[in-house]
Design a protein that fits this description.
The protein is of the alpha+beta class. The protein is built from four helices and twelve strands. Helices cover about 35% and strands about 30% of the residues. Strands 3-4-5-6-12-11-10-9 form an eight-stranded antiparallel sheet, with helices on one face. The protein has a two-stranded antiparallel sheet with strand order 1-2. The termini are far apart. The model has no long low-confidence stretch (mean pLDDT about 85).
């Protein structure tokens, strides 16, 4: 702190003390204290309510429009520009991008699959292990439980059950999200385009 600032603050502080000392017998300190406590409590209450409201609304499920840095309205040209040439593809039905995870000490591979309907993105799905940077959708990720998904997003709009009954795909059209569950855990997740044909198993139960 510079000398000039220190002198200025000292003068202000001494002036305040002098003012209080000259007025202390004229002020009703009980009323001042009560008003101070009321104002302080009111401000604390307002801040608490705002914090609780923010926390509540922040926890509500939201509609997803982007996953893996891609939007549902991205074109194939956009995808190639952002992600490069796909590792695998099948007659324009899907593009797959496979990643080696040895850098994060995982023997498994991470797989992002982009399904198309004509030239529109039908869904963008991640299938792979859970690691530090594995994707999440509103805090739901690989390994999350069935209950955690339901608690977050509620009852799905559609449930596709595999023919062997070992897997279930939970479809949320409203939020544009998809979760595949096996052994009570999320094994794949992503976003879907409700305007396209619904994601489901080829052979359902």
């Amino acid at each position: 702190m510079q000398l000039g600032s220190a002198i200025f603050l000292s003068v202000v502080f001494l002036s305040l003390l002098y003012f209080i000392n000259t007025k202390k017998n004229k002020w009703n300190w009980n009323i001042i204290l009560k008003r101070f406590l009321i104002v302080s409590f009111s401000l604390l209450l307002i801040i608490t309510i705002i914090g609780l409201a923010y926390s509540f609304f922040n926890e509500l499920p939201k509609q997803e429009k982007e996953f893996w840095g891609l939007k549902l309205n991205s074109t194939k040209s956009d995808i190639k520009f952002l992600k490069g040439v796909p590792t695998e593809s099948e007659n324009g039905r899907y593009w797959a991008y496979v990643f080696d995870l040895t850098a994060v000490n995982s023997p498994e591979q991470a797989l992002y699959i982009i399904f198309f309907e004509d030239d529109k993105i039908r869904s963008i799905i991640y299938n792979g292990p859970r690691y530090n940077n594995s994707p999440k959708i509103q805090n739901i990720g690989i390994g999350s439980t069935y209950k955690e998904v339901i608690d977050k997003f509620g009852s799905p709009d559609y449930v596709s059950i595999s023919s062997d009954e070992l897997k279930r795909a939970l479809i949320y059209d409203k939020y544009k999200v998809y979760f595949e569950i096996s052994k009570n855990q999320v094994i794949s997740l992503g976003i879907i385009n409700p305007e396209c044909e619904r994601m489901k198993y080829k052979i359902e139960k």
